[in-house]
Amino acid sequence: MSKRVCVIGAGPSGITAAKNCLQNGLDVVVFEKNDKVGGNWVFNSKTGHSSVYENTHLISSKVWSEFEDFPMPESFPDYPGHVQLQNYFESYARAFGVLEKVRFDHTVEHVTRQHDGSWLIEYTDNLGGKKSEVFEYLMVCNGHHNVPKYPSYPGEFTGRFIHSHDFKGVDETWRDKRVLVIGGGNSACDISVEAARITKTVDMSMRSPQWFFPKFLFGKPSDVFASRTAWLPKKLRQRGLKLLVRIVQGPYSHYDLPENTTLPLTNHPTLNSDLMDYIRHGRVKPRKAIKSWNGLSVEFSDGSKSEYDIICAATGFWTTFSFFDESFINFKDLEKIPLYRKMMHEKYENLYFIGLFQPLGCIWPLADYQAKIACLEILEKYKRPSDLKSAIEHEVSHPHFDFTPGQRHAVEVDYHTFRHELKRELKKAGIDIGKAPAGNKKLYKSP
Fold it and tell me: What is the pTM (predicted TM-score) of this model?
């Protein structure tokens, strides 16, 4: 059997998958529906898939977001913006010869596993032609920010309703409008703060308490500061973080936010240094969960009502893959995705999901690790567990933290713990990755 690999997506996970294929002498083709590398970090994507908006910056610091074999420029700030990141991904792909392997403006329409185990890839090329090719291995690298979740409530809202999937920035059509943002995650906070600069009012509706962390602690990026506590027992680490956040921000009741009774890191944290200031300045107002809507009026669970011109739902995405038949692979309704190391399927040894996890940190450096493992297995230098079903069941039932139930945490991992686990897998193939992230040798401590 040949070693021909199909990579779907030229975002950060796709380009690192392709890089590892090339470094291991594998014949790789990358299908990308956009005209640039970078995936969601390509602003104003013409394809209509999720992309960053005008003022997007990283929520993990460059220290913990750069590929370990390709440092970000020293000129980059602690939290680079989307233009810098897209240029960084372009430089990465060019440096490792990946650009020549990417077929831009090519959309994968359908993927079928054939009787001999190979993959039939049906796609539309850059001229609109319908074509197909066969590959022996498949790496799915297009993430899970593709199909938005739309909330549903009794009644009908007659104003302008959008999902964060379609949000690209605040323009003059938002000026002096009454805006409601649904959600309490990173996108909801960013959109609320951005909108509050020119709108008449901005309210945020949250159905459950959230943890809001500042992007800097004691003058350092929060994840840099937190990484120094990775060696602590989990409960002690969480309680210390809870105390620290309360000392820095004060009780959430001062912000009209519900107190979170869970420990930090059991929910995916929201990092935003502006939101709390905007709340205390009266520019953003927290609201309860939505009960119903009627025309422009929205009723909340506490019985209060307000009218809005624009509602933006920052309510997440389904974990789906449009090119797979649902009868073949369907993760949509699962609260735990059954993949070993978040990448290996129990039934299909030549299928890998690269970057399909949500860390308390950044995806890309660890997607690089996953791609290394996949390539080593293709070259028969790595062996997955013999009883993969049991290994998956153990992994799913032993999360890194006691994450709260729900699809939001279906692929949640702790960055440092997951890095340690992937390093262990690589050691099985004789690969010892002991170095710290590039350019930051003194910051990393293994758990």
Answer: 0.91
